[in-house]
UniProtKB/TrEMBL annotation:
Signal peptide boundaries: 1-24
Subcellular location: Secreted, Cell wall
UniProt cross-references to InterPro entries, sorted A to Z: PAE/NOTUM
Pfam families: PAE
A GO biological process held by the record: cell wall organization
Enzyme class: hydrolase
UniProt similarity note: Belongs to the pectinacetylesterase family.
GO MF annotations in UniProt: pectin acetylesterase activity
GO cellular component annotations of the record: plant-type cell wall
Entry protein name: Pectin acetylesterase
UniProt keyword annotations, A-Z: Cell wall, Cell wall biogenesis/degradation, Hydrolase, Secreted, Signal
EC number: 3.1.1.-
Higher taxonomy: Eukaryota, Viridiplantae, Streptophyta, Embryophyta, Tracheophyta
Length: 323
């Protein structure tokens, strides 16, 4: 019993010390503005050796992530998040993006960790002491691109798939290879690669007891209803073509349908063997407001949708999210 107490006290002191160091980084103005108590900034780590593999951001700079080390009984647990941020579908778009932090690690600043990345045990009881990695998105192609040639006129690089591999390799060397529990997650545009690479990630972790994947808001409206625009199918056609994503799309899918259709997670998820968890709101506010149209977002909020609006919405809900 005495030994236990000593261990517990040591653990408490150890944890407090770590929390203290991090709390020095807390952004006071952020805390006051948003009323969030446990948010803290984490510096970026540049993956220098990715350069030799040509695993680079749109502008040719090396990729980056933000890593906060686990502590206590979380030291061998890892949660990795592929951050979202739409896609670039043509040269103009990608050139523009290459001058932002979504296309160049030169422009990335420290990133704020909160919510599922919080260090607070009360706020984040499941993951507070895990190793947490926020992978920055800088390829514009959802971590799927792999084109060798570079047009000297634009100097744009389409290498997202290589970035995923280079980042995971770097993390394996930093302790991920000894992970006991690990989660590969992705949000929005990068929910898709969290499904696509889920089994590959699992297979790299030989010592792990549990490996799972998490897709957060990663499903995009795809309906046959001709009255509603097929926004994402045409977008994904452009993305897959521009970024040369076909190489990484599962053959089990591309043998059955067009490559752009294999960019929808619902068309590849049935072949994933590793357990994965989906978080998707049927009322995804971005898509309800910007894609569905017919003022559905507005009538949902005002609770006065007409029967035909309700039918559009139900049709979408059934076609898209519940397969
Ligand atoms: C703190 O957060 C605010 C946003 O709430 C941001 O404008 C500011 O640049 C941040 N400060 C630092 C030092 O990162
Ligand atoms: C590139 O894509 C954007 C939308 O993402 C569009 O507004 C623009 O017209 C496109 N440019 C070209 C040259 O196709
Ligand atoms: C270029 O990016 C900026 C944001 O950095 C955006 O406001 C602007 O609309 C973009 N222009 C084009 C042509 O996409
Ligand atoms: C629904 O309510 C909103 C807000 O009160 C109003 O602007 C809109 O005109 C209403 N629509 C219908 C069809 O009644």
């Amino acid at each position: 019993m005495a030994t236990r107490s000593v261990q517990l006290v040591c653990l408490l002191i150890f944890s407090t010390a770590i929390i203290k160091t991090a709390s020095a980084k807390i952004n006071e103005s952020f805390k006051q503005e948003k009323g969030i108590d446990h948010a803290y900034f984490v510096d970026r780590s540049i993956v220098q050796n990715a350069l030799s593999k040509g695993a680079v951001c749109l502008d040719g700079s090396p990729p980056a992530y933000h890593l906060d080390r686990g502590f206590g009984h979380g030291v061998r647990n890892w949660i990795i998040l592929l951050s979202g941020g739409a896609w670039c579908r043509n040269i103009t778009d990608c050139l523009n993006r290459s001058k932002t932090d979504l296309g160049s690690s030169k422009l990335m600043t420290p990133f704020i960790f909160l919510g599922i990345f919080s260090k607070s045990k009360s706020e984040n009881p499941d993951f507070y002491n895990w190793n947490k990695v926020f992978v920055r998105y800088c390829d514009g192609g959802g971590f799927t691109g792999d084109i060798e040639s570079i047009d000297p006129a634009t100097n744009l690089h389409f290498r997202g798939a290589r970035i995923f591999d280079a980042v995971i390799e770097d993390l394996l060397a930093k302790g991920l290879k000894d992970a006991k529990n690990a989660i590969l997650s992705g949000g929005s545009a990068n929910g898709y690669p969290a499904v696509l690479y889920c089994d590959r990630f699992h297979n790299l972790l030989h010592k792990a007891h549990r490996v799972k994947c998490l897709v957060d808001a990663g499903y995009f409206i795809h309906v046959k209803n001709p009255r509603l625009a097929n926004v994402f199918e045409s977008l994904f056609r452009d993305v897959v073509t521009l970024h040369g994503s076909i190489k990484v799309l599962p053959k089990s899918c591309t043998s059955k349908m067009k490559p752009e259709l294999c960019f929808f997670p619902e068309n590849i998820q049935q072949d994933i063997k590793t357990p994965f968890f989906t978080v998707m709101s049927a009322f995804d506010s971005y898509q309800v407001d910007n894609i569905i149209g017919s003022n559905i977002g507005e009538c949902i909020r005002a609770r006065n949708c007409t029967e035909s609006q309700n039918n559009d919405f139900k049709g979408l809900y059934i076609y898209t999210w519940v397969k």
